[in-house]
Write a structure and sequence with these properties.
By secondary structure, the protein is mainly beta. 6% of the residues lie in helices and 62% in strands. It is built from 1 helix and 8 strands; from the N terminus they run αββββββββ. An 8-stranded antiparallel β-barrel has the order 1-2-3-4-5-6-7-8. It is globular and about 50 Å long.
């Protein structure tokens, strides 16, 4: 069995869980792909991407935001398993009642989805403090030489315990 860098990073995130202030479950499920040149490439990317992850939100350390760590795995658009570990920052704004909107900026390591290395992903969020929809956007990039240059919009749910 081939050992990857993720085998060393993931345990560090799991060990940090007791230090966390706000754990959450991440439920991955969908993506939408655009910009695939069907004249030159085979563009059968899967839009159903089920998976699970965990997030640990740390005490508010930056004015107006919260530091966080995430790890998870999902079935990627190439019908293979992808896994990641990332750290980031979240900022939310109240909309009225329990509703809020926000942004999340993530950076970390991804093994899968045509990538084996460092990644960055911005997310927009909408929902309540307990349950939120997160929408991410990956611009048109060449990923793993599979389909040429393809953009992707991702959709997942975040459920705070």
């Amino acid at each position: 069995m081939k050992t990857t860098r993720l085998n060393f990073i993931l345990p560090l995130w799991l060990l940090s869980a007791p230090l966390a202030a706000a754990p959450a479950l991440l439920i991955f499920g969908a993506s939408h792909h655009g910009s695939c040149d069907k004249q030159r490439y085979q563009c059968d990317l899967h839009d159903f991407n089920p998976g699970l992850g965990l997030e640990w939100g740390f005490e508010q350390m930056l004015s107006g935001g919260q530091l966080l760590a995430r790890a998870g795995a999902y079935r990627d658009s190439y019908a293979k398993t992808a896994a990641f570990a990332a750290a980031g920052w979240r900022r939310v704004w109240p909309l009225g009642g329990d509703w809020e909107a926000g942004v999340v900026l993530l950076g970390g390591y991804l093994h899968g989805s045509g990538i084996d290395g460092l990644i960055a992903l911005p997310l927009l969020t909408a929902g309540t403090p307990k349950l939120a929809l997160e929408v991410g956007y990956i611009p048109k990039v060449k990923a793993g030489g599979y389909q040429g240059q393809v953009s992707a919009t991702t959709f997942n749910l975040r459920y705070a315990f």
